[in-house]
Amino acid sequence: MDNIDILLQAPILNVQLLLDGLMIGAIFALAAYGLALVWGVMNVKNLAQGDFVIAGGYIGYALAQAGIHPILALPIAFVVMFGFGWLLYKWVISRVVDRDLFASLLATFGIAIVLQQVLNLIFGPEVRTAESGLETLSFAGGLVTVAEIKLLSFVLAGILAASIIVFMKRSRMGQAIRATAQNARAARVLGIDTERVYAFTFALNAAICGAAGVLVVMIWVIQPYFGIVYAVRAFIIVVAAGLGNMPGVIVAGLLLGAAEQFSGFILGAEFQVASVVGMLLAVLVWRQMQQARLRQALQ
Amino acid sequence: MTQNLVADKSPQSDVATPGKLSQVNMVLYGAIAVAGIVAPLLFPAYTFQIAVLWLMVMFAITWDIMGGQMGYNSLGNIFFFGTGMYICALVQIGLYYDVGEYTAAFGAIKVDYTEQQYFTGLALGVVAAAFGSAVLAVLVGNAIFGLRGPYFAIGTLGIAFAAAELIGGWDWVGGGGGISLPVYPGEPDDRSLFFYAVCFVLAVCSFLYVRWLYGRRFGLAVNAIRDNEDKAEAMGLHTRRYKTVAWSSSAFFLGIAGAIFGNMIGFIEPLEVAFPTVTFGIFMVAMSLLGGKGTLWGPVIGAVAFHLVKELTWTYMLGWQFVALGVIIVINIVYFQQGLMGWAREKWPHRFGIAVDEEPERARP
Amino acid sequence: MMHQAMKLGLLAGAGALLATSALAKVEGDTIWLGSAISLTGKYATNGVHTQRGYELAAKKVNDMGGIEIDGKKYKIAIKYYDDESTPARGAQLAERLIKQDGFKYMLGPYSSGLTKAIAPVTEKYRIPMVEAEGASRSLFTQGYRYLFGIISTSEQYLGSAVDLAAEMAEKGGGKASDVKVAMAFENDPFSLDVRAGVLDDAKRHGMKVVIDDKLPRDLNDMSATLTKVKALRPDLLLVSGHSKGAATAARQIKELQIDVPMIAMTHCESADVIGKFGKEATNGFLCPTQWAETMSYKGPYFGSAGDFDKAFKATHPEYTSVPYQSAQAAAAVLVWADAFKRANSLDPEKLRDTLTTTDLTTFYGRVKFDDTGKNIAKPMALRQIQDGMLNVVAPSAFASHPVEHPRKAMY
Known about the structure:
The complex is a heterotrimer.
Chain A: H1 2-9, H2 12-42, H3 49-65, H4 70-91, H5 101-123, E1 136-139, E2 144-147, H6 148-170, H7 172-182, H8 184-189, H9 194-219, H10 227-241, H11 246-267, H12 272-298
Antiparallel strand pairs in A: 1-2
Helix pairs in contact in A: 2-6, 2-9, 2-10, 2-11, 3-4, 3-5, 3-9, 3-10, 4-9, 6-7, 6-9, 7-9, 10-11, 10-12, 11-12
Chain B: H1 11-14, H2 23-42, H3 47-69, H4 78-94, H5 99-103, H6 115-144, H7 149-168, E1 179-180, H8 188-214, H9 217-227, H10 229-234, H11 239-265, E2 267-268, H12 270-274, H13 277-291, H14 298-316, H15 321-335, H16 339-347, H17 360-363
Antiparallel strand pairs in B: 1-2
Chain C: H1 4-18, E1 26-27, E2 30-37, H2 44-63, E3 67-69, E4 72-82, H3 87-100, E5 106-107, H4 112-124, E6 129-131, E7 147-149, H5 155-171, E8 180-186, H6 189-205, E9 208-215, H7 223-232, E10 236-240, H8 242-255, E11 262-265, H9 268-271, H10 273-281, E12 286-289, E13 298-299, E14 303-304, H11 305-315, H12 324-343, H13 348-356, E15 359-362, E16 365-368, E17 381-386, E18 389-394
Parallel strand pairs in C: 2-4, 5-6, 6-7, 8-9, 8-10, 10-11
Antiparallel strand pairs in C: 1-2, 3-4, 12-17, 13-14, 15-16, 17-18
């Protein structure tokens, strides 16, 4: 528990951990938001979520190599991944939408390993990064440092999330998506082209992940097999926040990022993942106990 | 063997009349038994591969108890594989050495097992792995059996992940550095045959066990849970009891499988070998689905087909093997929604009539 | 009921599987070496570096006329299988190379974990294996007779950095035991082995280990550990986590502006940290290396270390500096070529005996195995990033530049 002492003696470090945590949490939140969208609207559990993120990262990397600043690559990755998501929906996902749990899980697992390997064949297995060329801000005598790119990414992630929320609330397509999520059959009866809604939703998810990926390649590192990190986090966040709870997903994403930083600091990096998964299990068991209480009340 | 490999009774008949084997079934089982015994003699070079194939068959069969027959989709069955592997390893080592010293990254101990020590350790280890995993299944199961649908899938996945990470952080068992297991004392060819025999017997036992299980009231009860758990409960079924039996049965066999596989590989570590969640853990689901889940033979066929495809692409399509594997999984899910068994049933419905005996035309011309 | 087509399909599949045994150890005028290598998965970066080294050396040997055995000229060819960076697969593939495909001569995989899984297999079948990428000490305490490792073992990776820190402390008027050490090692067999070596060295100097974190394998973020570094202000920061660990560490050290006088990490070159993050931010990193192109070794085939550097860059122009993983892989092939020549035979048992008496100087250094099969004739070197160059600073026999201490970094 020496590590807790350090935090108590130098409370400013809490700020550093919290900031780092929130910033990585913002990326997790984006991936989780996309997952919550496809899960909620079309009941597709997308295991390839993390690989979409990595694919977006490679688009950012490739454009950076071609001399385009990675920040400008963000909208390009968004559009490219949107198109990719649309095609993927037409080819594969449309056939697994109304099927049981494992249809979508396994189909997207298949997509995930194909995507990983194709990225490996194109870009090679080396670790890749893209430099934004921005500086690092330093506070409190260097005890708290914030890379400007992280700050910028956080803001961009926020703008992206906000514009999607507005889009879902205001636009025709957004309303159609929400209607389909509530009751697909009724939506069809009312003349909504649910097929198009599904395609759009899946494409939007891929686009969000792609944009998140560009942020990842600017802040962390990517490799074709790193998708699992984001996929696992996205599932944890959605399950913990509960389906249909979009603000909850974003809050849970940010919290998860912070919790990882603190558990990594206090327990040591080797227990960082275990503690996060432990939290997921705790949430699930707690939920289940609540449900059991509900059932007893019915009896 | 291949001629009768997929011969099957209709799914309804899966739960019928245990113990009584029809004539054709006797032939079929006989053929598989002979094939299993002859295979390593005919293709001695492939003993290891075929042994892994039997393990895959067993993976799919045991996953199907919960996943197919009961409709409880676990993604974390690999948990028991890993716990079995570690329990067995600890027993094998702990009997004769100090575990902490043995597993130290320094590798200071020069390990030397006599034949008797090796087999005693292995036998005790396997037994401990089997029962240890089953007990863990009861304990863990009681915490998470209330979860349903995707929540159960994610919850079980989480358990497997957490176990891998915790063992990775546990220095006493070698942590992420892993453990080199004692080496088989005999000749390499004897070793292959020995492990082959164990894997084959294990696959056969697990098959006969589930066949016996599905033929009893248990089969009907777990199918009822799959179809509607609340109604099953309302009719007085102790659903939790059935879930516990189903999961600890899987755990029992997977525990043994882990113990054996660890010794076949000779070097174990938590993330890649003991808890390979995203490879074996998902493969066992894919294999069951490929063959047709919820049927007796589906998982067996699925495992055989999957393993063959995997080995072939790994040999002939180096670099593209994962692409091939992914595409095959996707095609399987999209176009053969009910698995190979379901596809065959749709294609030749008359062959899947109510009749219990398979291939009536051929059996009774 | 299975339809005929399906039966046929399965039969055809089984048939095709069996047909793989066509490859034999020696085919016509070609000697086949077998290797399981990580082409996918988390070790793929260095797996590919290794493969390129093997290929380059095999090509060189063939271009220079191949190997003459009993008056007949042979060429070398290498068969690879992808082990997916997992030991479970590696052991299966070794079994397959030996049993099914009939390989009698093996080259090692990448990483200690994979080598640990494969060595028992080659040992059992009495197939000699020359490995160039498994550095774990425990590989050589098991009494393996058919395993030959040409690289310095893992305790030497960061040991020289620890010694250097002690030396610097004493030079500065302090004591070696005042040095505070922070360690961030990946939780995998190789890095844990490096860690065990460092712990011994630190104990010998009486140093205090203030941070001892094990990084997860799908590592993308080590800022929590680095924040601890900020708080505890160690004198020496040690990082080991293959290429992705080095890249992550370099990036976050830059972002968090870690101000530690001495930082050492493995795999700096193979991760190309200078190219990625600039020479200012990475200035002063100490990078242990098995080999450097400035070393003064010379040998048959490639000539000097510098010549190998040129030859490799000519074949793979995308490399700015040649990773030592490729160099040692190439050296492993040369050791095989030498053994074939001296044994003048294709018999594995005879080759094994010949390998034990290897005493060969190559561009990579001298190779001479002790009783346990590890190379004892070659020291490790320590490079330091100085103004964007990877200069050798230790041991003094090879040092081209003095060490800069404390490191001067610009963030």
